[in-house]
Known about the structure:
Layout: E1 3-7, E2 16-20, H1 45-49, H2 56-69, E3 77-82, E4 89-94
Antiparallel strand pairs: 1-2, 1-4, 3-4
Amino acid sequence: MVCFRSAHGGAFGNSDFYFVCLLKPITSEIKKQEDEIADAQWMNLDDFLKLPYYKGLYQEVMQFGAQALEGNYSGLVSTELPIIFRAGNAKLYHIPKPKL
C-alpha cells in the first residue's frame, strides 16, 4: 500500500476511504468491460502525472505512487490536506516525502 486517505461527513453523511496500492501487471494486455468503460490504455508515467485532474490531494497521491514505483518506500506517515471538492481537510496516509 502506497497511501490512503480518510474523509468524514462525505456523501450521504458517510466516511470515505481512498486506498492506493502499487501493483505489477501479469500482462500488458488490457481487457475492458465494454458496457462499463469507454477507453482503457497504458500511459507513460510522466504523461499521466501531467493530467489536469490531479491537483491538491490527488497530485500528492500520484507523486507518492511514483516515488514507490522508483523503489523509495519506508512506511506511512500522515498529512492533513484540504479537500478540493468541498470544505474541510482530510488526512492522507502516505510514504514519507524524499529529503532533498
